[in-house]
Write a structure and sequence with these properties.
It is a single chain. By secondary structure, the protein is α/β, with parallel strands linked by helices. 29% of the residues lie in helices and 28% in strands. It is built from 4 helices and 8 strands. The strands form 2 sheets. A 6-stranded mixed beta sheet has the order 1-4-8-7-5-6, sandwiched between helices. A two-stranded antiparallel sheet has the order 2-3. Helix 2 links the parallel strand 5 (63-68) and strand 6. The protein is globular and about 35 Å long.
């Protein structure tokens, strides 16, 4: 899973272009890209994790963009989830290749507080780098949603927690 962000940094950048000076301080320049891997048979877990953040981002004046593969967001679900219906935009039926390119273009604009897109494969290092650069430029968050099937877990070790300690062995 890739996660990268530059929030709460105390650095100051100054870029001089001709006679103008642009300064970005820690509060002005944040960007985050996160790959969220979730089980298709447990969508509620993802909602529990992301909804509070999406609700908070909905208070900004910027849009939220959802790039969904096929399904259309239910108006009733959006309202019941506490998301701002008037600030939410959805584009559906994108090809997987178009999703990442659309995310990069949208993040770069700065018009969106968050861009959410679905992608079936792991991100390459280059794809991740391009998404991070776009998010930083647009001061936005991007979530790459990657579903995994529940049957793919059958060959893997069962979920659980092992605590290794010298005190008990």
């Amino acid at each position: 899973m890739y996660t990268s962000g530059y929030a709460n940094r105390s650095s100051k950048l100054a870029a001089i272009k001709g006679n103008s000076v642009q300064a970005n301080t820690a509060g002005d320049s944040t960007g985050l890209i996160s790959e969220v891997v979730y089980r298709e048979d447990q969508p509620m877990m993802t909602q529990l994790l992301l909804l509070p953040l999406l609700q908070q981002l909905g208070q900004q004046s910027r849009w939220q963009l959802w790039l969904t593969p096929q399904q259309k967001l239910s108006r009733q679900w959006v309202q019941a989830s506490g998301l701002p219906l008037t600030k939410l935009m959805q584009i559906s039926q994108l090809s997987p290749d178009d999703t990442l390119e659309s995310m990069i273009r949208a993040l770069r604009t700065g018009n969106y507080s968050v861009v959410i897109g679905w992608h079936a494969d792991d991100l390459t290092d280059d794809e991740h780098r391009r998404l991070v650069q776009a998010a930083e430029k647009g001061n936005a968050m991007g979530f790459v949603m990657r579903p995994v099937r529940s049957d793919s877990h059958a060959t893997r070790q069962l979920s659980g927690l092992k605590i290794h300690s010298n005190f008990y062995h």
